Amino acid sequence: MNLKAEDLQWLQTPSARLEAELCIKAISKMFKIPTLILLLACHTLSADLREIYRFPNGTWIENIAARTNGNLLVTLINKPELWQINPWTRSGHASAHLVHHFDEAKQMNGIAELEQDTYAIIASDSVWTISLGQNGGASIPEHIATFPSGLLNGMATLDGGRAVVLSDSERGLIYRLDMQTGEYTVIHQDKTMAPADYLGLQLGINGLRVARDYLYYSNTAKRLFCRVRIDLRTGQAKGPYEVISGGVLSDDFAVGPGDVGFLAGAMDNVVTKVWPDGYHEIAAGSKNSTLLMTATSAAFGRGKSDRGVLYVTTGGETELPVNSTVTRGGKVMALAVDSYV
Fold first, then answer.
1. For the chain, domain boundaries
2. How far, in Å, CA of 54 to CA of 271, rounded?
3. Do residues 237 and 285 make contact, with C-beta atoms less than 8 angstroms apart?
4. 3-state secondary structure of 27
C-alpha cells in the first residue's frame, strides 16, 4: 500500500500523535521491539529526529561515543563527569547514570575507544583511560599523560588503540600520544588548524575522526571541515591538508559510509551533511529551532538495532538560548539517517 502525504495529515495533531505513540509502545511491549526503533521508523511523528535523554538545566554535553552494547557515553563541560546512557529500555524512556567524576579536572572533552569497552578520555589538560563492563561497572581511571597549557579538545584512535591523536584548539595543532608510555609529540600543525576569534576566544582545530586512512578535523572558528591522509600507525601525514568544505560551522562530527561527514553545527543548531566533494546540505535542525540547540558532537549507533541512527549531543539552551526566551539542559537526540547515507 502506497501512502501519500495527505493520507497522514491526521498525525500532525497532538492528540493523534499521542495516540500513535501509545499504540507504538503497546506494539513494542507485545513483540519485544525497542520503542525507540519503532518511533524512529515513524518519520511523520518526528521528522526523523527524536529526543533520547535530557540533562538538568545548565548541563553542557561535549562529546559522545557509542558502545557495541547499544549504550552511549557522554562527557560534560560544566562538570568533569563521564555519563552512560541506555537509550533502549523497554519503557521507551532512556536511563542515565554517572560513570565517574574526575576530581582532578574542571571539564571533560574528547573520548575515543581504544579497544572494546576501554576508552581514552580528555579531562582538562590530561588523558585518562577507563574500562567498562557490560553490566554498567567501571574500572578505576588510569592517568596516562598531562599536557602543557592549551585546550585539549578532540581525540581519535590510532595504531589499533596503542595511540591516540588529540587536537589542541588554542595552539592549533595535533598531538600523537602513545598510550603505553605516555609520551607525546606534535605531528600536525597547519594553517587550516590555526586559531581565530570565536565568541571572544582564540580557538582553532576542534573535532577529530579517523576514517579509512584519513584524519578528519574541523576548525570551528574558521568554519572549515578538512582531512589529511595519514599513516594509521604513526599518524604522520602522507598527503596534503585538504579543505573539504568551507563556510559550514562545526563542533565535533561523525564520518559515515562513503566518507560523508555529519557535522554538529554548534550555534547554528543543525546537523550538516558534507560529501567528499564539498557539497553540503542540512540534515536536521534550523537556526531558530531548539531541537539541536548548540549541537556539539555526533556518533553512529553500533548496536544491532541502531546502525542507522546518528546520535547528536547538544550543549542545550544554556549559553545562547534561542531568542533568549528559554533555557534547557543539554540532551542526546537520535536522527534516523538511513535515508541520508
1. 16-46, 47-336
2. 18
3. no
4. helix
